[in-house]
């Protein structure tokens, strides 16, 4: 089996050597790919000297880099990790084994920072917790750490993932994709450490937080248009009723419409509410068609259980794959 380690990078001169070396040691035979996103330091030279295959993605944003990696690289198992040396390479073999033995499409490395409180900024922790809860509310399922940058994927996940995000919202899109496509996914606790001296986070807590929130709403609208537009239509219908019922009551009693502008406004809002619900119904049919096509694309690729049957259980008594 070919295992590819994907490392998106931006100005990680101080950390990239350690990341490449550690994953090479922990996953013998793997190929390390470092995709630079316009570094102004010596990240490219250092990564190449460490033995990684180095390429460049000029479009700024982690989502753009991951999209390019998923399109360019062909492998059976993909390990995605940040180039800042905060994730534990020693956990990679266990994560790969979990993916294969349980016939999964994604294993998420949940960050455990108990011994390194400074490694995970409090603002990021709070934001992660809020978005995890919010994801559970609108998509009816959630993760412990939807923003973890440490993940192991099957080929069929990578090659069926649309990858629409351009920035740090890419991890959230991966999580939502696995939920909506009903893919088998598990989480695994991994150690999360501090960055080396001279390495700095590129995540802006507030700016990127708002972008992530907006992307989540956009994905909700795209995946569940009926819920989205029916919700808007329901609110508008309530407003229309609140404005129109008193006028209808006056008309029943007096036979006159005493507040014509309000009556016109109530009727107009009611019409818009009906149109919103109708739009939701139409787009829901389109969305289901897209989901069916995405599912068929996913099924075009072989399960890890077929590629590596010796790694998988021989029966499904524990929920694993059945291998003939």
From TrEMBL:
Q: Which InterPro entries does the record associate with it? A: Glyco_trans_2-like (IPR001173), Glycosyltransferase_2 (IPR050256), Nucleotide-diphossugar_trans (IPR029044)
Transmembrane segment boundaries = 226-248, 260-286
Keyword annotations of the record = Membrane, Transferase, Transmembrane, Transmembrane helix
GO MF term (any one): transferase activity
Lineage, top ranks:
Bacteria, Pseudomonadati, Thermodesulfobacteriota, Desulfovibrionia, Desulfovibrionales
Keyword match RNA-binding: no
- This protein's species is Desulfovibrio gilichinskyi
Please report the name of this protein according to its UniProt entry: Glycosyltransferase involved in cell wall bisynthesis
Record carries keyword Transmembrane: yes
Q: Where is the Glycosyltransferase 2-like domain?
A: 5-158
């Amino acid at each position: 089996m070919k295992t590819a380690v994907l490392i998106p990078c931006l100005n990680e001169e101080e950390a990239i050597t350690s990341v490449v070396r550690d994953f090479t040691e922990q996953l013998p035979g793997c190929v390390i790919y470092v995709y630079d996103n316009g570094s102004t330091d010596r990240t490219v030279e250092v990564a190449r000297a460490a033995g990684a295959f180095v390429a460049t993605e000029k479009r700024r944003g982690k989502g753009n880099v991951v999209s390019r990696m998923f399109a360019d690289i062909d492998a059976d198992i993909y390990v995605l990790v940040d180039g800042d040396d905060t994730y534990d390479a020693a956990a990679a073999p266990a994560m790969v084994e979990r993916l294969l033995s349980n016939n999964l499409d994604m294993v998420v490395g949940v960050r455990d920072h108990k011994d390194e409180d400074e490694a995970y900024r409090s603002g990021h922790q709070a934001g992660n917790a809020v978005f995890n809860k919010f994801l559970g509310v609108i998509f009816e399922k959630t993760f412990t750490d939807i923003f973890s940058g440490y993940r192991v994927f099957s080929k069929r996940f990578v090659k069926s993932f649309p990858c629409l995000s351009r920035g740090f919202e890419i991890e959230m899109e991966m999580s939502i994709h696995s939920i909506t496509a009903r893919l088998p996914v598990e989480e695994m606790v991994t150690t999360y450490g501090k960055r080396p001296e001279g390495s700095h986070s590129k995540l802006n807590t507030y700016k990127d937080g708002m972008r992530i929130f907006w992307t989540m709403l956009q994905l909700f609208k795209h995946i569940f248009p009926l819920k989205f537009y029916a919700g808007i239509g329901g609110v508008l219908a309530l407003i229309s009723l609140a404005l129109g019922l008193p006028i209808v009551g006056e008309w029943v009693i007096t036979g006159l419409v005493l507040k014509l502008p309000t009556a016109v406004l109530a009727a107009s809002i009611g019409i818009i509410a009906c149109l919103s619900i109708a739009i939701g119904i139409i787009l829901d049919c389109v969305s289901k068609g897209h989901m069916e096509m995405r599912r068929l694309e996913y099924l075009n690729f072989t399960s890890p259980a077929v590629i590596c049957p010796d790694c998988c259980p021989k029966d499904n008594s524990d929920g694993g794959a059945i291998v003939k």
